[in-house]
Task: structure prediction
Amino acid sequence: MSDAPIIELRNVQFRWSGQSSFAIAVPDFTVHKGETVLLLGSSGSGKSTLLSLICGTILANTGHVSVDGTDLKTLSGWSRDRFRADHIGIVFQQFNLLPFGTVLDNILLPLQFAPKRRHRCTAPKQTAMDLCKSLALPQEIALSKASNLSVGQQQRVAVARALIGEPPILIADEPTSSLDETAQSSFLNLMFDQVASLGSTLVMVSHDPRLGQRFDRVVQMDDIVTIERHAT
Ligand code: ADP
Ligand code: MG
Result:
């Protein structure tokens, strides 16, 4: 692990516009290159909002969010999308696979929007097949529709999609919440194996403190975030 921060939030304030009265302040939150961080917090504590700020899908109203040395506010919407695709592999809670795409289509999808990631991946199909193999996905399902997979297989495809092209950062938003304990543990093993072999940075969100022992650092949302709720 080097000392260079790969994710930095300084004096950040963000308020959802419209109906929601939810606003958060993040005075100082930093993640270093190669670190694995578990963010713990109850439902509604702003975990997904914080991840969206890091991913640049939403922009801070004040303060700075930097990823790999780039202040996300300096990028236009289009270049921020491309920056995200290049730098961040994302595993969503519901996996968000394209149901009618094949397993291969789903794994290769992020490369379409990410020139740097594509560049790192000179033989995309072979890499996708290798990822399937290392995630214990049978080769013959590569051309199956994602909707035909079991939940356990879908989670592996979601991880492969996040890992393809070796993004320096992995963000996982409660990826294990719909899994039983055995599936949860095998999912984490697979993800940590890949993180270790690529030296990636991992920020994962959960409300389950038992997962903490696997991570370099456990961060409680209450310790880094202040929440404001206004009557509307
Ligand atoms: P967590 O992931 O910890 O459960 P979230 O960040 O998803 O928390 O949500 C925190 C609060 O932010 C919610 O209670 C909701 O009011 C608000 N919020 C979340 N997403 C949106 C959105 N897309 N639009 C408006 N408000 C939102
Ligand atoms: Mg959430």
